[in-house]
Each structure stands twice: as structure tokens, then as C-alpha cells.
Amino acid sequence: MNDPALINAFVKAAMETFQIELQLDVKRGAPSITQPDAAGLPVMALIGITGDIEGILSLGVTCETACAIAGHLMGEEMTEMTALVESGICEMCNVVGGSAAMAITGLGLKVDITPPVFIMGDALKMSLGGVPRLTAPFITPLGNIELKLAYHERSAADHGSALHVGAKL
């Protein structure tokens, strides 16, 4: 996981999505490489990445931030996790993934994304067979959003997937 063009495609897609969808001032925090067993935030939407690269993209937030984002998008106050809040976070992840996939296709790679999955619980973590992941924080007036990306380039010898998600609930 060291191709700057691929990483930038995801980070840029996230920044543009958050700025367009939220219509707020969004700042990027300092990205870092985290180990696969590092816990994430308690609310997570994730998508799988398939094709010439294989991996996981997730957006993590707190419950409060998820409610604030969904409420902002809907134009009403939301104070508890509902199906509508879950759907909003998943759709944001889907748009980020779709935008990044289009940019990566422009780089000459064939990629696709899976439908988003919503998970919630304490000490959520995602792993791609021990591959370290990029963590890119985004700071918004509604709360922080944490993009996590783990991928590897798929070789002809790859059969199946090492993709899995773990949660301590």
C-alpha cells in the first residue's frame, strides 16, 4: 500500500465529497499508517474494493457526529442512531468509494466497489490480512470523520480474498 496516486484518489474523493455534500469548511488532519489491529471509531460504514486492487475503505465517526451529519443533510435535528442516520453515513462512504473508483479507473486500473455495510460497536477494527492501513482524519464543524483504507494490488495468483472485518461488541 504505497502508491501515492491510489491513496490520493481516495483522500481527494473524500475531501470533495464532504465539501460538496456537507457544504461546510472541511480540513484534513495529518494522515498516518495504523496497524490492522488498531481500533476505530464506534460507527463505521465500509465498502469493499475489488478488481486490480483489493481492499476495504471505511468512514468512521462517533454516534454524535453521525447524527449531526445526517441531521445537517436532512435539515433537521437528529439525536439518536436511526436507520436514516445509518443510511446517510453509508451513502457518504458509497459516494467517496465511487468517486475514488472513477479516478483510479482513469489511472488505467480496473476497480469496482461493493455496496456499503454499516457496523456499530466498541473497538471496531478492520483488517485486510495484516496489511497496514492509511488513516486520514477530516475535521468538520459537525465532528471528525476518519477515512481508513487498506488495500493491496491483486496479482494473477490471488484466489479469493483475505478481506474480513472484526468487531468487539
Question: What would your notes on this structure say?
Answer:
The protein has 169 residues and is of the alpha+beta class. 32% of the residues lie in helices and 34% in strands. The protein has one domain: CheC-like (Chemotaxis protein chec, 3-Layer(aba) Sandwich).
CA-based gyration radius: 15 Å
CATH fold topology:
Chemotaxis protein chec
The count of DSSP E runs of length 2 or more, i.e. the number of strands, is 10
Low-confidence segments, ≥5 residues, pLDDT <50? 159-169
Main sheet characteristics? 8 strands, antiparallel
CATH architecture: 3-Layer(aba) Sandwich
Task: Record keyword descriptors for this entry.
alpha+beta; disordered C terminus; two-stranded antiparallel sheet; globular; eight-stranded antiparallel sheet; 169 residues; Chemotaxis protein chec
Give a brief description:
The protein has helices spanning 4-22, 63-74, 83-105; strands spanning 27-28, 32-34, 43-51, 53-61, 111-113, 117-120, 125-128, 133-140, 143-153, 163-166.
Question: Could you give the topology of this structure?
Answer:
Elements: H1 4-22, E1 27-28, E2 32-34, E3 43-51, E4 53-61, H2 63-74, H3 83-105, E5 111-113, E6 117-120, E7 125-128, E8 133-140, E9 143-153, E10 163-166
Helix pairs in contact: 1-3, 2-3
